[in-house]
Design goal:
This protein is mainly alpha-helical and 92 residues long. Helices cover 47% and strands 4% of the residues. It has a two-stranded antiparallel ribbon with strand order 1-2. Strand 1 (29-30) and strand 2 form a beta hairpin. It is globular and about 50 Å long. The protein starts with a helix and ends with a helix.
Length: 92
Amino acid sequence: MITTQNNLYDLLINRNIIDILIGDTEFDDVVIESEPDIKAKMPYLSGPALCELCTLFGLPKTYSWNGGGSSRWMYMQELIIHYKIKIVVLNY
């Protein structure tokens, strides 16, 4: 398979990868001599934080506090697709 920029963004639109990016997946403990074990994971991104991130990257989103909003992983997926279109398709 030929790897293109398009393929690289498609790799990110994978639920397992998205769970890492939004802070839902923990990795093995990091062991450093004479230090307590450290949990390795990305920071947890709340719904409002993901909406702010989307808006920062040109995809305006507002968080619905009374329900009816998207799942956190869906906000990240939309952001990746939006960014892929800007970079790959529009050469922006």
